[in-house]
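User: I'm writing a short report section on ligand binding and want a predicted complex to refer to. Could you take this sequence and zinc ion and write out the structure as tokens? A short remark afterwards would be nice.
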Amino acid sequence: MPRLSGDVVAIRKSAARQFAVLIHAGAARVVPSSLWLLESLLPSRCACCDAPGPTACPACVAALAFLRPPFCALCGAPTAWPVGRCRECSGRRLAFASARAAVRYTGSAPRFVHAWKERGLRPFADRAGELVVERLACPPADVITYIPPDGDRSLKRGYQPAQGLARALGRSWRLEVAPLVARARPVERQTALGRRERRRNMRGAFTARGTPPPHVLLIDDVYTTGATVAAAAAALRAAGARQVDVVTFARAVR
Ligand SMILES: [Zn+2]
Ligand SMILES: [Zn+2]
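Assistant: Sure. The structure tokens for the complex follow:
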């Protein structure tokens, strides 16, 4: 499939920035929301396949593999029949009560998530939020929080996908969004690590900010092995949360 070249993306981005600077002439910095507004006014293309139209075109959205029950009650892996624990999560100490995702991390989902992470377009977070709300019921929760980005990577991108999704879900599910999780230390990139190494890498990676309410809904963009959300849920539980449920946009299925 043809894809938007980096140059074209850069030109569109720089055009949006110049417009924003014109409008905010005299202002010290470009306001991110106006940048988003101007980007949305430029002719839009699908970030997955480059077709003119919405940020994620109907064909690419239709190509997403939606997860359907039955699921493992705990980790949300699709199973042949409903189970309390599955092969993937049995024997693991997981600090969350449940994890659910809208789509399988295959097909057009990795391209969708990649464009969302690298380009930080708000329409992606909103579209991902809509797809989650269409398919998942809101777990019982007093507040929504999200996995904070790794310092360096978020600085490079200037955007936090999990926070964007949390905000979109907060609006739909009428829940307050609060930054309750912080990074306790930098971690190694997870992509090159196996399952066991991921868990070791993430252990103690997070701390809670303040005292969380009893029921917390934790949001991330992708559930891969569950090591990241389990570590964050453990930090929230240690700080006083009684129950942590997890919702992600996509989930890797083995
Ligand atoms: Zn497309
Ligand atoms: Zn399971």
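A remark for your report: Strands lie at 98-104, 143-146, 181-183, 206-208, 215-223, 243-251. Residues 37 and 114 are 21 Å apart (CA to CA).
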